[in-house]
Structure formats: C-alpha cells, structure tokens
Specification:
Oligomer: single chain
Radius of gyration: 21 Å
Number of helices: 15
Helix content: 40-55%
Shape: globular
Order of helices and strands: HHEHHHEEEHHEHHEHHEEEEHHHH
Strand order of the largest sheet: 1-2-3-4-5-6-7-8
Distance between the termini: 40 Å
C-alpha cells in the first residue's frame, strides 16, 4: 500500500492551487522534522527545501541513514521528493530550534515551514528514542513538562508578528505539543491558527481538557491514528479523529511510514482494532488505580534509579535492551519504599489487564449464549 513517499511522488505536479493543503501534507511536514538538521539549521536559518536537501545530502549518505535503527530514519528521504515537486518546491524552512536536557527532563525540536499557498506550518518533533525523551513522555501522565512550555514559547516568540494563516502539527509527542502550544499561545496568535494536526499523539490530563483554552482550539484539531493505535489513545482527548489502515502489528503501526494513503487522504477505517481498544481500557483502569501523585512517585523512583547509577552515559542513552537490562540489575539499590511502589504499580497493571480480560470474556460468552446452536 502507498505511503507518504508514494504520495509525494504521485502528486509532485499538483500544486496547492489545484488541490489545497490536506492532512496528508501535514503528516509529511510532521515527519520531516525528525531529520537531523542540527549541523545545517538554527533559529536564524531561512532556506528553501531545495537548498536544505542539498546541504543535508552533502553531509550524509543514504547508506548511513539506512543503517540507523531509528523508526524515523526515512524522514530525510522526503526531501528528495519535495525538492522536485510543484507542490513543495520553493517552500522556505525557518526557525529551527532543538534542545534536550536531562536535568529538566525535556527533549524538544521545532521547525517552521512557509508554504507556497501563503500559509505557515509549525512542526513539533516527537520522541527521539532517547531515555530523556521517553521520560518526558511518562511525565505527561501526571503533569505538564518543560517541553510544553518551550512549545508555547516557540510560537509566541517566532510567530508574534505572523500575518499568514498558521497550521500546527506533530507526530506522537509532537502532536501533543502542537495541540498544547496552539491552545496556550497568545490569543492574538491563536486566532490565526486554522488547523492543528495530532498524528497518533497522546492526550492530556483533565485540568487541560477542562480549560477554556483547550476548548477554544478543539474545533480546529484533527487527530489521525492507525488502526492499532496505542500512543494516540493515552490519557484523554476530545478530537475529531480519522482512523487509518496501516501495515505492521500493534505498536509498530505508530511508525507513520506504515500508514496507508489513497490519493490525497488516508485510507479510513470505521473503528480501531480489538487490541487497541483492549489496551486503551487497561491503561484507563490503571490510571484510576494510580492517581497523579502515585504516578509521579513511580516516575521519580525509576528516573532516580537511572541517573543515580550513572546509566546515562553519552554513548548509551538510547532505549536499547542492554539499557533495560542494566536498569533491572541496579533495581536492588532502590529503597524499600521505592521497591514496594514499583511492585505495587506492576501489580496494578496486571490487575487492570485481568479485569478487562474478565469483562471481555463475559461479554463474548453472553453474546455466544444468545445464539441458537
């Protein structure tokens, strides 16, 4: 099935005048920000997509990119199609910001695109696979983060005098940041935002959901999730949602290169898969069992275990099997209270799985007994 690279190839001669910006274009720009631009771009940069592509491929080879284990390694290949496209040729790439801090538990990157249709698209990067990136994701379950603040500051600082219509988007954590920043940026800027795209991005705690700022931006938000979405069902959201068909099994569908594209839209399905619905309920049950304070305590115990035992070395901060093995080995050094906290949390997860499984079995038995044999 066709993906966003196929979309760019097939529609390279179709301009925005002939076919206006759509949610697939948004995914292209949400994916592109995963590229490693830190040797080329900074906050003062302003170059065309053609110039950016040339600079990038002068620094990197296809073999080098393909050897990466990252699920987002295909992002730079989008530029090869965009630079020779009537749709994206001449697009300006500006205001690249990238920052990461273990101390602040923050991994952040954002980029602005000035499109040929006269609008701008602000793209926020999702999780990059580092420990600090995933730690920030876990923090979403009990608080806002430094990354949320940086996303709001990015829009306010770089787009305070923006006269063009604004679109904002991101994949995974980037989708969450896109919605948050659009909701809590300055009111004068929020009025210029026409669309917000969350591509399999997690939701929010109820204090955000209930805020007037969230309610104000909500009608402009579109969520796209794969059939077996897990990340996009975390926490709570009230988005209008497209469910797209995708290759891969369960969590591997989070890779948006696996999503099916038909012409200028996603291949839509009526409902998510059973496994996606099952784990959504499991996680919601767990959230009811563990309140926000308990989740914060669990996080602090795990994160202190990682940092206090010097497991975060510069050359080993990716979430590899070896890293998890080292964390488990060091768990004996936890205090009695923290050990008990982790064991209780694990127990609650299994209890949630058990509760949902029992309910599903009862529902299936009830349905079966209603049929005549």
């Amino acid at each position: 099935m066709k993906n966003i690279i196929d979309y760019l190839k097939e529609r390279k001669n179709i301009s925005f005048l002939e076919d206006p910006f759509n949610e697939v274009d948004g995914l292209v720009l949400a994916e592109l920000v995963y590229s490693n631009f830190n040797q080329i771009l900074d906050e003062n940069s302003d170059m065309s997509i053609e110039e950016l592509s040339k600079e990038f491929w002068n620094l990197h080879t296809e073999k080098e990119i393909m050897s990466s284990p990252s699920t987002t390694k295909m992002a730079p290949f989008l530029m090869k199609e965009m630079e020779d496209s009537s749709r994206f040729k001449g697009m300006r790439v500006k205001k690249f910001v990238e920052d990461s801090s273990l101390e602040d538990i923050m991994q952040f990157a954002a980029l602005t695109f000035e499109l040929p249709d006269g609008s701008v698209f602000i793209s926020f990067r999702g999780t990059d696979g580092t420990v600090v990136g995933w730690a920030e994701d876990f923090k979403f379950s009990f608080s806002t983060t430094e990354g949320h603040k940086m996303a709001v500051d990015y829009i306010n600082e770089y787009h305070k005098n923006q006269s063009k219509p604004i679109r904002v988007g991101g994949h995974s954590k980037g989708g969450n940041l896109a919605v948050f920043a659009s909701a809590f940026c300055d009111t004068s800027i929020r009025k210029k935002i026409v669309n917000v795209y969350s591509y399999d991005g997690p939701g929010f705690l109820m204090n955000i959901i209930d805020s007037k700022e969230y309610k104000d931006i909500l009608p402009r938000v579109l969520s796209v999730v794969p059939e077996s979405s897990l990340v996009g069902t975390l926490l709570t959201n009230q988005y209008k949602t497209i469910i797209t068909n995708a290759d891969g099994f369960f969590v591997f569908q989070h890779d948006d290169m696996q999503w099916h594209i038909v012409d200028n839209h996603f291949e839509e399905l009526e409902s998510r898969s059973e496994i996606s619905l099952f784990f959504e309920e499991v996680l919601r049950n767990w959230q009811l069992r563990c309140d926000e304070n308990e989740r914060e305590e669990i996080f602090e115990a795990i994160f202190s275990l990682i940092t206090d035992n010097e497991l975060l070395k510069e050359d080993d901060e990716k979430l590899t099997p070896a890293f998890f093995y080292n964390v488990i080995k060091k768990s004996s050094k936890l205090s009695g209270k923290d050990k008990s906290l982790l064991l209780d949390s694990i127990s609650e997860v299994f209890s949630s799985i058990s509760d949902v499984t029992k309910r599903k079995i009862k529902e299936n038995l009830s349905t079966a007994l209603k049929h005549d044999f």
